[in-house]
Amino acid sequence: MSKKEVKLAELSLLMEALCEERLSVEEKMRLEEIVLSDPDAMQFYLNYSHLHGTLYWDQALGSDDMIPVATPVPETKLPQQTEAPETSRRTRIGSRLVTACLLAFFAVIFISYITQTENPELAENPIGETKSPDNLTVNINNEIVAQPNPNRSIQIDTLKHPMLRTQNEKRVDPFDDRPLIASKPRLLPPAEKLSPRASDEAIVTFINHRIQDGWEAAQVTPSTFATDEEWVRRVYLDVIGRIPTAKEAEQFLTSTQPDKHQRLIQQLTKNPTYVTNWSTIWTRLLIGRSTSREINRHALQDFLVESFAENRPWNDIVYDLVSAEGDSETNGATNFLLAHLNNQAVPATAITTRLFLGTQIQCTQCHNHPFNNATQSQFWEINSFFKQTKVVRSQKMGKDGKKNTQKLELVSLPAKGATFYETRNGLMQPAYPKYAGVKVSDGPDVNRRQELARLITSGKNDQLARAMVNRMWAHFFGYGFTRPIDDMGYHNSPTHPELLNQLASQFIDSGYDIKKLIEWICLSDAYRLSSRFIAENATDNPDDGSTPNFSRMYVKQMTAEQLYDSLQVTANPARVVITDYSTAWNKMQKRDQWLQQFVYTLNNEENDETTTFDGTITQALLMMNGPLVKHSLDYKQKGSILGQVLKEHSPDSKLKKLSMAALTRYPTSRELSELKRLVKERTKQLIARKVPPQTAVVRTYQDIYWAYLNSNEFILIH
């Protein structure tokens, strides 16, 4: 077996033992060592925990197909002790089913690995070759995997494990020249802290110095600054979610003002498209892209549009989302929790901490965290804040006066007492509302969600600011200070702790000003770097699991929303102008219909989803022949980019305008020379096929524009 297979085998056995609460002290230490030493192992751990938690919710607690209807009662009685055995028995049955599902899943993986190893065509050491003593083969008993014995221990010898052998011998396996553990930067002395409410210039300078410290520690040299063409395209996509029009790009490129970068950022954050872009981003994070839920997506986005348009403090926005009450139409903020209040509000608990606090606690719903202080009781203490929250359904008359529609309302009932949860050994335990060491009264006269919102956003605990800074940094750079960005804590230390802490502090001092945070990040030297590798920073490649040092701009894929809006720019720039939100909403609805071809929603309890914009055949065909690209090639429509280009007299002018419209740059002299040659050849070929000369010219330039729109340079943010 390969090193990865050995690691997976050991890690999966340890995770199995963890979920069954039979992990010894030595095995716990080993699990911590593996997960903290390798980003791939960390991701495996998170995926396994997520799968285990999801199956546990669905089978042990039961998935709610419909949001429960609340019947207001004056008081919620505490569960009687006699009810515990029945609940325990039901949950134990579900727990066994979860374990069986997990074991079956990993049995398939192990069997496939063993089959590959036994296949002579796939074996690393074919028959007849001498096998190196450094290549270890680990035989896993299929019976043990399929039918675990509670009394057995992990049989993998850690002293012979490839990862530990490499560490002990201080050498790399000759059969694999890739380090198993990403090298970590050496420690530097602490830097001086920023003064409270520091100036924008001081904050940007601090960012630059701390990033430079990281380069020195990692012994890498930064790439050169990006060209103005690269930077302006990048900042438009990151801040307002689309490429610039040719006119917007040329205004920036021809400007000679020394502070034109700062001026552009401030101009973009005042652009109405900034509001629609960030409201779209946070609607997607809060409730996903799926439109299947019985919630008012329009009302939630209206709430976010108003918040971003007024540049409301981030802590105020979060407070409203967590404490919202009322019906889904009147108060759009209620739709966040309305989408997650199934399964005893377990999803609401998990997504609230993950989005706003950067903490993943879903695995502690059923057991303590293996190597940090997070406990099962802490999960249910936060969950207890949602004990009073209920959803009330009612019927309302439709707009046509005939059809009745569902109306959802979020209410807080005067419930009191504890929330009861079951430990893995079947004991029922109470949990009272408590967050960050602060206990809240469990009386019926206390609105628990309002108290939770107050504790999260008060500023006494800076986790809200740290989580937002980390998420915003990841938005602009592709990687945050932690990986993943929503799993911050002792077990996942940030790459630049001083920078993260100071930015969070300044973010709080600014009044949680989102626009200021964007400006600080976009004006930093790191954000202005080119995406091109150089020999001195080739090791700074987080894609291979190493620590990001931000010595260059990491290339990002456009999101599906960015791609849609950018293609609109290449067809007719007038279409991207937003004058009022009602017009914008109609455009976004059309975009959502198109997005379904690019987005696959997992529809799980936490609104996790993946964009499938990854070069599949369907997507390639959609880009080559889809309606949006065809729309960009329609030169007859009013305001068409291509139509305006065809009116130019010289081939040079035509080609330069097409390149600027699609790639936000002019072609190089070599590109221009080659393109003119292709124009002549292509036109001659079409005329030889008896295509009219004027039509041949039009089709030639359509082909060139089509090639630009289907190029990597157009698709990627670089």
From TrEMBL:
Chain ranges of the DUF1549 domain: 207-390
Keywords: Membrane, Transmembrane, Transmembrane helix
One Pfam assignment: PSCyt2
Transmembrane segments: 97-115
Domain DUF1553: 448-678
The protein's name in its UniProt record: DUF1553 domain-containing protein
Protein source organism: Gimesia aquarii
Organism taxonomic ancestry: Bacteria, Pseudomonadati, Planctomycetota, Planctomycetia, Planctomycetales
